[in-house]
Specification:
Layout (H helix, E strand, L loop, with lengths): L5 E7 L2 E13 L2 E8 L2 E8 L7 E6 L7 H14 L4
Antiparallel strand pairs: 1-2, 2-3, 3-4, 4-5
Amino acid sequence: MDTTPFKISYQHDGIRQYAEIHPCCKEDNIVDYIVYKEGKLAFTITRNAADNNHWIVALKNADDIIEEEMLQSIGREIDINRNRV
């Protein structure tokens, strides 16, 4: 598994935003990705085990609200970076 961090840009609320992605761990062939926004850990994202085309939050601050549209947009960019699409 390649654990080299990479940068992505994604669309959210009509605005181009940026994040740094760190592949971090693999369990049962599912990779988690740490998402850093503005230099701070924002959350960890992974694929939904029941639907491999859907992304879910694996770990986040309890007070943070993570919008589904943003989550799926970041997941699409991870797929593009990892040549899955």
